[in-house]
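Appendix B. One record, verbatim.
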Amino acid sequence: MYNYLREYKEKYNYDIVFFVSDQTYNYYYDGGLNKVISPDDNFDSWYFNFLDLNQEYDIQIDHDEVNDFSVSLFVNCLVTDERGKTLGVVGVGNKIDDFQSKLENYESEYDLTVCIANVGNAHNSFTGSTTYYKTVEDAAKALGLSTDTITMDVDEDGYAWNDGNVCTKVMHNKALNWNIFVQTDITPNINILLAQMNRRIILLALIIISYLFVSFTLFSKLTRVTYEAQNTDDLTRIANNRLFKEKFDKENKRKYGKMTASLFMLDVDNFKTFNDTKGHLYGNAVLHMVAETLKNQVGTNGFVGRWGGDEFIGVIYEAPDKAKVILDAAQIILTDKNPAMPISFSCGVSQIDNTLSLEKNMELADQALYKSKEDGKARCTVYNSN
C-alpha cells in the first residue's frame, strides 16, 4: 500500500497521499505509518467530522502534520466496501501557497479584495485564517459585513450589491462548498473585473476538481486492493473461497458463455498422514507447495483458490481433456518433490455450464473427484454424465 500511495504522489505531484483505516485508525501515507488517530485528539477531528457529514468527499484547509504542519488544501474521499460499509478515508493534499499566490496576483492586478469562507465542509483543528481562506468571523471583519452575510445561501451565478462606492459580489461553488467574495471600490468596472475573476476562479476550481477525479480513481483501486488482500488465504497466498466465488460469478457472466472452460476440484491424498508423521508445520508446507504448483501450472490461463482444509478449486480456460493434461503435469511435479514421501492429489474436472451456479458446477466436478478416489487416488478424472 505504501508503494501504491507513493506512486500516486509522484505521478500527480501531490505533497501527500494518505489512507486512514476505519478499523485500526492507522494513518498511512506514502512514507509509512504516520500515527494512530484518536477521537480524543483535536488534530484528528477532521476525520470524524467528515464521516458525520455522510458525504462521498469534502475539501478542507488544514495543517499537514507529515510536512512540517504546513497549511495545505486537502481532498478527502470516503472508502467503502461493496456492502457500503466504511473502510476508511483516502485523500491527497497540496500546500496552499501556489493557490494563494495566484489570488495575490489577481488582487494586485485588479485592486480587489478576495475572501473565501468554508460553508459546508467538515470542520477540523485548523481554526485560523490564511490570507484568503478565512473563518466566517475573520471574513466578516475583513469585508465589513455581517457573519450572516458571509454564510448566506447563493447559487453559482452569485449575488452582487453596492454600498456607496464599494461593490461586493458573492458566489457559491457547490463542488468546493465555498462562498467566494470579491470586493472593490471601482464601481464602474466591477462587472468586467468580476467576469475575469470568475473565469480564473472557475479555472482554479477545475484544477481542484481534477484532484477529486484522481482521488476517486485512487479510492476505487484502493478499495479493490484492500478487498482482495482481506480475501487472500494467509497460508497459501491464493484466493479464499469467498474471493474465488466472486471471480467465478464475474467470469460466468462475461466469459463462459463465449468460450470453453473447465472447473476442477482436488484434495491432497492422505493429508492427515503428513500432519501425523511430520507435524502440522510440514502439513502447512505441503499445502503451500500444492497451491504454488497449481498457480504456476495454470498461470494466466485461469485462476485457483483454496476452498478449505486440503481442498483446492480452480478454473482453466480449456476443454476438460486439455485441463486434465495441465493438472496431470502438476501431479508429476508434486510427486517428484519428495520421493520418500510423495505428494499427490485426487482431482475431478468438468466443463463449466454457464447456465448453472458455481455450486451446481462443483457437484459435477466433485463426482469426478470421488471417482478418482475410488480408482486409487493420485489421478485426475474428467466428468462423464454416463
